[in-house]
Amino acid sequence: MTPDVREAISIAIDRTSLIDFTLGGAGRPLAAPIPLGFPGGDGHAVPEYNPDKAKEMLAAAGHADGFTLQSIYPDLNVYGVDFNLMMQKIQQDLSKVGITLELSPVPFANWREAANGDHIPLTAVFFAPDFFGTSQYIDVFGMQEGSVWANRAGGDTVPGIINPRPGELKAAALAAPTADEANKLWTEAAQEMINNKIIIPMVSPDLILAYGPDVKGVRYSACCNLPLAEITN
To answer: In what helix (H) or strand (E) does residue 205 lie, and over which residues does it extend?
Structure first.
């Protein structure tokens, strides 16, 4: 699958409609494989929904009659996103540009085995951070040699997958003398990841914490979601 085909897939998906369908509008579209609010994650342009252009790009790539993709994905409901609903909506959007998506929801352990094995043509997954920091996203989603997703995308066998730049920018950002300089490097790394068109971000669900007036100490943690030990009443 070429970068142009991957871009066509991206702009064939109506992210606004997807958020309405899966979250009742309670979410924001993502442009980069780095969360909004994390260094380097903000300020990137979200791909514009354009099915007509997607069809043109597919035709130019030799796929005027469309094609079929298998999609193995984890059967989950995470952060309010039902993966089955999400993938059904994506299936509908892609069908409008001639791409048939065969959906195969599986338990997470089976998905991980498939993703780390012979590779999956198109999949979906969530990522929960281990700490507030961008380096982990580059380690997982950057296409530098040895990253989690470079391996899953077939970087060892498919030409054009490997891109060392995100890893180089990560090293520079971690060594940067100021937060501003580091943030510029994280932003550049995010743009490199966007340009690779391997990871196609979809949605950042809104954070909703519901609790009574007598409950104290409720706060969101990037790594732990909700620190239960801090909650009292």
So the answer is: strand 203-205
Query: What is the Rg, in whole angstroms, of the alpha carbon atoms belonging to the chain?
Result: 19
Task: Give the integer Cα–Cα distance in Å for 75 and 66.
Answer: 27
* Distances in whole angstroms, Cα of residue 219 to Cα of each of 23, 134, 208, 229: 22, 21, 11, 11
| Residue reference for tokens 């193995």 | 72
* Residue 224's pLDDT band (cuts 50, 70, 90): low
Over the stretch 199-213, which tens digit does the pLDDT of each residue have? Answer: 999 999 987 778 888
| Structural domain total, the chain | 1
**């054009």: which residue's tokens?**
160
Which range, of 7-16, 17-26, 185-194, 222-231, averages the lowest pLDDT? 222-231
Instruction: State the Cα–Cα distance between residues 205 and 223, nearest whole angstrom.
Output: 16
Range of the domain at 50: 3-230
Other residues' Cβ atoms within 10 Å of the Cβ of residue 17: 13
CA angle 140, 114, 146 (to 5 degrees): 30
CATH code of 156's domain: 3.10.105.10
Give the Cα separation of 2 and 198 in Å (integer).
10
pTM of the model: 0.88
